[in-house]
UniProtKB/TrEMBL annotation:
Pfam families: TetR_C_24, TetR_N. The keyword Transcription regulation applies. Residues 33-52 bind DNA. Transmembrane segments: none annotated. It comes from Streptomyces coffeae. This is TetR family transcriptional regulator. Residues 10-70 form the HTH tetR-type domain.
Amino acid sequence: MARTTDSDGQPVPQRLLAAATRLFAEQGFDRTSVQEIVEAAGVTKGALYHYFGSKDDLLHEIYGRVLRLQQERLDAFADADAPVEQRLRDAAADVVVTTIENLDDATIFFRSMHHLSPEKHKQVRAERRRYHERFRALIEEGQQSGVFSSDTPADLVVDYHFGSVHHLGTWYRPGGALSPQQVADHLADLLLRALRP
């Protein structure tokens, strides 16, 4: 039976995910072998296959863990007892911060999503759509109540913001001129300015 933790107490699945994330970021998904992942994680192939059925499953989980975190946080912002403008701003800033904090994961995913099996690809698209729909619902709420302008369709506003988020991996560098929160504040403010009536 596979051990659930390593000698330092880190669960094996997290150890495998950390090794896969580092290797996929450095070498690319398609140029990283299962053998390299298990050697970097200090486990056997049997341990990998005990927790993940394939390298594809690792890629799916790398993206899934960030999306689950972001969905949970978006749901909390959307359900908060605050004006819609504040809830949208908080959600818009949060997705930037959590993407930067998990930049390797996000970069790997957008660079390697086409490697997923058709079933997993469909599943990921559905999860992402659920997130975007919840975000769009905040915009629509503000538009219907007159807080936000209705001049631009809510779908286009969502695409505008997430286009910026999805490109963070191409230019953001830790230790640069702006902190993650500063980038988040600027992008959230841009979004809200675009929605002013």
